[in-house]
Amino acid sequence: MFLALLLVFFHWKETAKVYRPQLIILMCGQLVPILTAFIYLLGFTPPGIDPVPMVLWISSLLYLWSIHSSRMFTIMPIAKDAIFNSINDGVIVLDETNRLIELNQAGGCFQS
Asked: What is the pTM for the complete model shown?
């Protein structure tokens, strides 16, 4: 879990800003069992009681919220980003309220 946390952390700058809140929630979800295991290994819990399985539901809730709030399964981010940035023409993506969601590398000339 710690290695997964490091991978997410090191890929922070490569991630589109629209996905960063999702990464924050995923990192928090990974930190909960890591910190709980650390507390257990230091001996701050009652003898014979491992609290990690008891707090994994918190991580699960954070993961579910992250998936639900970002519509992770309706958009395939890795494939979309690869295809989106390989298009030679500028592409701008707006949401329902005409807010800028994303633009590809060729569309970068539209920024002011």
From this structure: 0.54
